Amino acid sequence: MTHDQFQRKSRQTALCGLLAALSVVILSLGSIIPLATFACPMLAMVCLLPVAGSYGLGTSLLVYAAVSVLAVLLCADKELACFYLFLGWYPTLRPRLGRLPRVLRIAVKCGLFTAAMAAMYALLLFLFRMEALVEEFAEYSVWMIAGLFILGNVTFLLFDRVLGVLDSVFRRKLR
């Protein structure tokens, strides 16, 4: 390995480690701040944009996997950690969805979000039996849960637009 290759790999490792650590800190703050259960994982997902833009899909997925494991082990709020675990990969996949026609792309994004949230809550409610969530969901009607999923999809589509803007800003600054 030449000196330049070694230096490039060192820079890549340092940046990825730093962004992974930043993601874990942001996720940990979500455990401290009430109502940050969904905002902090979305902020942590933004940390994947520079990795995906600079080093590609494989490196970005590796950073996502490392942050997911650390979040599940270290974060007090397991709902927050599972949200990142089930949806943190999205910034890496997002550019691949850009090739689809607009209506199909929106449908696929909403489908991915809904499937990830349904799987996450099924896991938390039925497998892990998180009592606080079980009690909370017992109070909700079917219509309330459906409304929450619809609002979640709208929020996710807005987040997708923010990711697009941030990604284009990052790519412009990278050049």
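[next item in queue]
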Amino acid sequence: MERQAILRLRDGKEYTGTAFGADCGISIGEAVFNTGIPGYQEILTDPSYEGQIVTMTSPMIGNYGITAEDNESNGIKASALIIRKLYRGPVMAGRITLDEFMKNHGIMGIEGVDTRSLTLHLRDHGSQNAVIFTPEKRKEAEERLESFPLITERDLIDGVSVRTTIANPSLGEGFEEAPANPAVHFAVIDYGIKKSIISCLYKRGAAVTLLPHTATAEDVLAVHPDALFLSNGPGDPALLTDAVSLVRNLLGKMPIEGICLGHQIITIAIGGRTEKMKFGHHGSNQPVRDTITGRTFVTAQNHGFMTVRSSLSPTASIWFENANDGTVEGLYDDTLRVRSVQFHPEASPGPEEAEAIFDVFMEKAR
């Protein structure tokens, strides 16, 4: 039997649809939109979406089902899912439906929403807190939405990071295994890392020691790495003062590299600042220009914060910039031995033409 559901944004805008997935009554988080066409499973399981409700702009979602080997983490990290139409037909043997997947992980979704209208609203008015609820939960949902903190006030890392140090973590079926004779050893700080990032490092012959977000500079030095790598993750980098201190304590002592949130942490650590974007970059079709070669390529992205170009020191150089809006997509400072990108070179989902960034990371770590 169909269950009515309502999406209410913080500014009062409402959409009515049908609930699917888990029957949890209320789901709350920051509403964002993702312009990708395939890849809904990787998006849902990307820890960078912790605390966010994802709107898919593609009109039908769920067509090819769910398979365990496409999970980017140990489960769904997004708070909820908003779609135009849920595919309810059969899926290939060995797969389960999206509806079943969300039920298994206790995550609520809403379908039947005019996602084009919603996307335009979020683009014009900005990403904002939202709540999905069933009609009988309206009063509670509205009260929770009224008092729910902004994403700039929420430290979301603790819920997605490992608790202990792990040497060469096993990623499971569908991913690379750790190399027998590693060429480089990375100490990787886990702020919500995707499996595909570690897999790309393994593929290039790198050993990985995964450390929790609470790691100190002494913890990093104790594992004797060739380089420090800062992962992707959710939330506002300006709240992560311990992460910034970690990087500052190691500047110049070893190469330091980062992706997405890691890039933003490096930005702050070398004296720059970050700021929240109006609606961010979420999708697999973001064009990025290499300032060194002049080449432009398409990338996968998922971030709501950006580096403020004017805040960077004279020794820091822009490595990449977004070809649409000119925002900083990567930087390097050879004096401090840092290099980072804002986009996701591992894709998953998305185009693979940026994966060569890992070759640069390997070269700079040697």
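[queue empty]
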